[in-house]
Amino acid sequence: MTDGELLYFGYGSNLDWSDWKSWCEQKHLSPEGLVEKTPCWLPDYTMKFHYYSHSRDGGAADIIENGKGHAVPGVLFTMDENASKVMDKKEGVGAGIYARKAVRVAIPNGTLVEAMTYCVTPERRENRFVQPTNRYVQSIEQGLLKRNLPIGELKNAIEDFSPSFPVERLFVYGTLMLGEIRQATTAHVCNGEGKSATVKGDLIDLGAYPGLIEGDGTVQGEVYHLDQVFQALQTLDSIEGFYGYGAEGSLYTRTIVEIQTNDGPQWAWTYMYNQHNESKNKRIESGDWRRR
Fold first, then answer.
1. How many domains would you assign to the chain?
2. Which contiguous run of DSSP H or E holds residue 118?
3. How far is CA 275 from CA 11, 28, 270, in A?
C-alpha cells in the first residue's frame, strides 16, 4: 500500500465492479483507484436492511455490531485519494446517509487488519425491515459467490430473520485436537468428528500448548462443526484468553481463516496467538503439534 492509499472493507453493491463503474460514469467521475486485495470477514457484525435508498428504489445494506459469532463477509480493497473521495460521494457521506467507520477485518490467513467501511447513520436507519430489490440483492450475491464467500448472511438479512451465524466451523491445531488434553472441550462445543485440515501460517511451541501466527508455512489441524455457535465461542474465548476485539491483554485472538480440506477451501473460526515475546518461542518446523 502506497502513501495516500486507504484500506476499505466493502460488503454491499461495491462487490460488483460494474455497479461501481456505472455509478461513476453516470456522475462523470473516474472509477480508477479502487483495487481489490482479498476476500475477508468482519467478525461480530451483522448485515441489516433498515435504510430506504431512493437511488436503489428499496433497501440498501448496512452493518451493525452484534454478539460474538456473527460475521459479515466482504472484500478488502485499497483506495487512492481520488477513489476515496468518489466513494464518499457514492455513499452519501456529505448528505449524512452513510458515515465512515474504522473496523478490523480478518483476511484469509487470519490476520486482523485495520480498515475503513461505511455504516448508515443513526438518523437514516428505520425501525423496520426495508425490502431491497432483486437486482440489488443479486449484485451482492454474485459478488460473494465470485470470491467463494457464503451467501447465508445475505439471505438471512433479506428474509429479515434473526441474525445468523454464517461461520459454523472451528479449526483447532493444538490441545483441542483429538487425543489431546482439551479434547473434551471440543467434544462439548462441537458436533460430529473432526476432519483433517490445514491453514497457511506458522506454529510456535509455547510449552504446554502451541500458537498459530502469521507465516508462510502450513499448519496441520482439524476442523469441527460448532453446535451452538454463540455459546461455543463464549466457552472457547474464555479458554483461549480472548477478551474481545480492541481489548488489551488477550493471549489469543479469535479470527476467521480460510482452511484447506479434502472437500476444498472452507472458512472457519480459529484462535491466533498474539505473539507476545515471539522471539523467545521455538517454531515447530513440521507445522504439526503432534510432531513437534
1. 2
2. strand 112-120
3. 30, 48, 15
Instruction: Reply yes or no on whether the pLDDT at 5 is more than 90.
Output: no
Mind listing the pLDDT tens digit for each residue in 110-135? 999 999 999 999 999 999 999 999 99
222 phi/psi in degrees, rounded to 5: -135, 150
Name beta bridge partners: 120.
98
Could you say which of 214, 240, 258, 285 is catalytic? Answer: 240
For residue 69, give the 3-state DSSP assignment.
coil
One-letter amino acid for residue 73 of the chain = P
**How does pLDDT run across 37-52, given as a tens digit for each residue?**
999 999 999 999 999 9
Domain region containing 203? 169-291
114 is catalytic: no
Q: Residue 26, SS3? A: helix
Distance CA 118, CA 173 (A): 35
| Domain CATH code at residue 193 | 3.10.490.10
Quote the pTM value: 0.92
